[in-house]
Amino acid sequence: MIGLIVRILLALGGGLAALFVARDSPNFGVVQGMLTTVVLVCLVLLIVLWRWKKDE
Q1: Contact 12, 22 (CB under 8 A)
Q2: Cα–Cα separations (whole angstroms), residue 43 to 22, 23, 25, 27
Q3: How far apart are CA 6 and CA 19, in angstroms?
Q4: Considering 1, 17, 18, 26, which has the largest number of Cβ atoms within 10 A of its Cβ?
Q5: How far apart are CA 35 and CA 1, in angstroms?
Q6: Mean pLDDT of all residues in the chain?
Q7: For residue 56, is pLDDT > 70?
Q8: φ/ψ (deg, to 5) at 27
């Protein structure tokens, strides 16, 4: 289950990284990892804000 979540996050990060860096670039993996982290942080932020608004 966790592997599926990681694959989805990496696919989203890879899609975003492809907008900024060529896929055959040597640092594509680094950019993909950074953007995957940004996607994960945004998802966690959305969940926290949604639950915070729900509690009001």
Answers
A1: no
A2: 25, 25, 27, 25
A3: 20
A4: 17
A5: 22
A6: 91
A7: no
A8: -100, 20
Would you place residue 55 in the very low, low, confident or very high pLDDT band (cuts 50, 70, 90)? confident
From residue 34, give the alpha-carbon distance in Å to each of 30, 44, 46, 52, 56: 6, 16, 19, 27, 33
Token output for 22: 């060529």
Structural contact between residues 9 and 39, judged by C-beta atoms closer than 8 angstroms: yes
Residues 51/20, Cβ–Cβ less than 8 Å? no
Of the pLDDT bands very low, low, confident and very high (cuts 50, 70, 90), residue 39 is: very high
- Could you tell me the sign of the dihedral formed by the alpha carbons of 5, 6, 9, 14, in that order? negative
Q: How far apart are CA 35 and CA 20, in angstroms?
A: 10
**Does residue 13 carry a pLDDT above 80?**
yes
